[in-house]
Specification:
Helix content: 25-40%
Number of strands: 7
Order of helices and strands: HHHHEEEEEEHEHH
Strand content: 25-35%
Oligomer: single chain
Radius of gyration: 15 Å
Shape: globular
Structural class: alpha+beta
Length: about 180
């Protein structure tokens, strides 16, 4: 669901807009695109995606398979293969670093299991290219319940807490922790 749907019931979209107006420079057309197309399931995620955009990530449409993701098939919410269809995401590029984030991606890990991740991330630093999972742990989320799922997915992960998101640290922590997660993998 787009930002407006995922956040609307709690007024989180207006909260994100207020947060952007106070703290983050973001072009109105980028905000409108994100609001219309970028999926989010919580106010926490809305804030996180807004912070990524404010850090320089631009809206884009792309297909993880066309970027080289081949560990698992990407499926839509009806469990149909993505094929050549594209998904909305955020793209950041600076110097030797490229980061492509596809929010709310469903991965079919075997014949019976599909798991949705908060973000599927392509991370390039120099000539090294990696895939990882981005997870936002909002208040009350027990990350221990994700251990089995993450083992089945088999990708390095970056976790960012709701408190860190409220502090405005999402994108800097993504870059920092991506490097550590990749070294640990």
């Amino acid at each position: 669901m787009p930002l407006r749907s995922g956040c609307g019931e709690s007024g989180a979209l207006e909260c994100c807009l207020g947060e952007l107006g106070q703290d983050f420079p973001l072009a109105r057309d980028a905000w409108e695109w994100m609001r219309e197309f970028l999926p989010a399931d919580s106010a926490c995620e809305c804030r996180a995606w807004c912070q990524c955009a404010a850090a320089g990530a631009k809206p884009f449409l792309g297909n993880p398979h066309q970027w080289g993701f081949d560990l698992h098939p990407v499926v839509d919410r009806q469990n149909r293969l993505l094929g050549a269809r594209v998904l909305p995401g955020l793209c950041y590029s600076k110097g030797e670093v490229d980061v492509m984030i596809w929010p709310q991606v469903c991965l079919r890990v075997d014949d019976r299991h599909c798991y949705r991740v908060d973000g599927l991330v392509f991370f390039r630093c120099g000539r090294q290219r990696y895939w990882l999972v981005l997870e936002f742990d909002g208040d009350g989320h027990n990350y221990r319940s994700d251990v089995y799922r993450m083992a089945k997915i088999g990708l390095p992960e970056v976790r960012i807490s709701g408190e860190e998101i409220r502090e405005g640290k999402t994108f800097s922590l993504l870059l920092e922790r991506a490097g550590r997660a990749l070294l640990a993998a």
